[in-house]
Design a protein that fits this description.
Helices cover 32% and strands 24% of the residues. It is α+β, with helices and mostly antiparallel strands. It has a domain of 185 residues: von Willebrand factor, type A domain (Rossmann fold), CATH 3.40.50.410. Helix 2 packs antiparallel against helix 3.
């Protein structure tokens, strides 16, 4: 059917207006969640802060924190992943012993709804427990028998872990015990980190250093894991002894027990061509440092006649939240 240029222009304008209206509506009815920890200048965790103590911006635009709570009451889903590739075999025993202490400490004093799922990874990813569980005896028995083979699919393991965590409620954490190597992944580092961001998962890499000399270490893997931890609000540990590994697990537990949840409804954030929105979260006090993810995947500019798809990391508004 033939359409006049004027009619086509009107239709295009109407489609564009509809897309803009949808984008504005979509932004206004979605909640962005941010899990954060705070430390003082001495590195000590800080609890007891209030909503008014935080500043949040989305793509440089200041936002108002609408949802605020301390996360210790939120159920915790931890995907504990142990690198069982050939390069880790000599350290595997003390890694699993420390991981068992982590399991006992976390589940012994936490929320009864907290759950841990254990995976091992080498060239493939292996489910050691079929579900997230609160059973310490099951997790400890599986840690005692975990073993692997050649190859290291680190990026694949993170990608699959994120997909596993994405539909779960509450706090979501990936703890990775590895030497930092990656040799057999089908996914790349960008895909792994994007999946973690989409799942709202916080990454805690525990990189057991097998070789002290930097010339012999897989520093590229270590650098990626540090970048992934920083991007999701976690932190990286580099233990070189059993005592340091025990401390790394204790520090992770302390972080998880001193978290805040910040939530906001994006306002006045102009759409860009990039779906990744840059977040800046800081404390009003210059004496405090906030550790939180550096962005999320949300809305982007829509082409004429289309509307933006939903941002996976955003939650629909529930009644009574406004």
């Amino acid at each position: 059917m033939f359409r006049s240029p004027a009619k086509f222009a009107c239709l295009a304008l109407a489609a564009l207006s509809a897309a803009v209206a949808f984008a504005q509506f979509h932004s206004e009815v979605r909640l962005v969640r941010i899990v954060a920890t705070v430390k003082d200048r001495s590195g000590q965790l800080v609890g007891g802060l209030q909503k008014e103590d935080f500043l949040v911006s989305d793509n440089g635009v200041p936002q108002e924190v609408k949802v605020f709570e301390r996360q210790t009451d939120q159920p915790l889903s931890v995907l504990l992943m142990i690198d069982v590739s050939g390069s880790t075999q000599k350290d595997l025993k003390f890694e699993t012993d420390s991981a068992a202490k982590f399991v006992r400490a976390l589940l012994g004093e936490g929320n009864p709804k907290d759950g841990i799922k254990l995976w091992g990874f080498d060239y493939d990813v292996h489910e050691e427990t079929p579900t997230f569980t609160h059973r310490m005896d099951l997790l400890e028995s599986r840690l005692k028998t975990i073993h692997g083979s050649a190859g290291t699919s680190l990026y694949d393991a993170i990608w699959y872990a994120a997909r596993e965590l994405e539909p779960r409620d509450g706090r979501k954490v990936i703890v990775i015990v590895t030497d930092g190597g990656n040799t057999t992944s089908s996914k790349d580092s960008h895909q792994a980190l994007e999946a973690a961001q989409l799942a709202d998962a916080v990454i805690y890499p525990v990189v057991v250093i097998p070789i002290v000399n930097n010339a012999g270490r897989n520093t590229a893997g270590e650098n990626f894991l540090t970048f992934a931890a920083d991007g999701t609000g976690g932190r990286t540990f580099l233990p070189s002894s059993s005592a340091q590994l025990d401390k790394a697990f204790r520090d992770i537990i302390n972080d998880l027990r001193t978290e805040y949840l910040l939530g906001y409804y994006p306002r006045n954030v102009p759409p860009t061509k990039n779906r990744f929105h840059t977040l800046m979260v800081r404390a009003k006090s210059p004496e405090l440092q906030v550790f939180a993810r550096n962005g999320y995947y949300g809305d982007a500019e829509a082409s004429i006649g289309t509307v933006p798809g939903p941002g996976v990391t955003l939650e629909p508004v529930r009644r009574g939240e406004r």
